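Following up on my earlier message about iron/sulfur cluster. Here are the inputs again, as you asked, copied directly from the submission form:
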Amino acid sequence: MNREERRSAEVNSVRAYRERGLPASFDFPEMFAHTRMLMRLLGRTPDKVRLLRATQAYHAGFERSLRAHPSQKPVACQAGCSLCCHNWISVTIPEVLLIAGELQVRTDDALARKVAEASNAGRGLDRDQRLERRLACPLLADHLCSIYAVRPLACRSFFSLSLAACQAVFDGTDEDVPTPRDAMVLRGVHDRCFWAGLRASGLGHEAVELNHALDIALSHEGAVAAWLEGLDPFASTTGDVPHDAEELLFLDVLIAGARERKLPENPWVT
Ligand code: SF4
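Thanks, got it. Here's what our run produced:
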């Protein structure tokens, strides 16, 4: 592709993204363009403003894609149902910092204490143990999310097709909840573009458990600056499954594609 063709392809992909978000499939040209956009927002040496703006773009991008791919089956979720808010919530550090910023603006000491208590109650528990104890997210208030506008992608992307299945998981009598396929695929697509953007900027992209990381962000002044400088105030956080070699290769493919460089050898795209 020559320079003119590349420019035209980029304009078309930005236009398509604005109209309908990303496809609910692992479409590499679209993912390259989206990763490039996130990398531009982050910049080479991201500061707090850039980081939070890119995180909001990650969330907004997912919402846009989701609107273009509504569930083909009726969704059981309704305001006031909070069964899924008694679970392990996987988040990236920038999402934690976005929520912490929102809570700091509110200066709500009681909520900060609630986060600390939830963090202590869940410390050392794995997903199953956490579910068994039905630990509520400390950000729940009257069965509604109190930080709805800045809730993490894990929460934005979870939809249930069966209230009975959610109840069974909550009660510990079953393990699976049927979910709309496209929402799950779109989560995977948007997660990877964002993780690649963070990786390209030299930032951590592994997921951590929400309560523990949020407690650290709220109780350590300067956590954002320290994390951006490469220090790791979140080192003790309860981590999620680390990204394996295949995942890292996938992110490197996205980064190379976004930079229009030669792609590393990989099994997915040439
Ligand atoms: S952040 Fe909000 S939506 Fe997510 S688990 Fe907590 S209360 Fe529920």
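One observation from looking it over: Residues 38 and 197 are 6 Å apart (CA to CA). Hope that helps, and feel free to reply on this thread.
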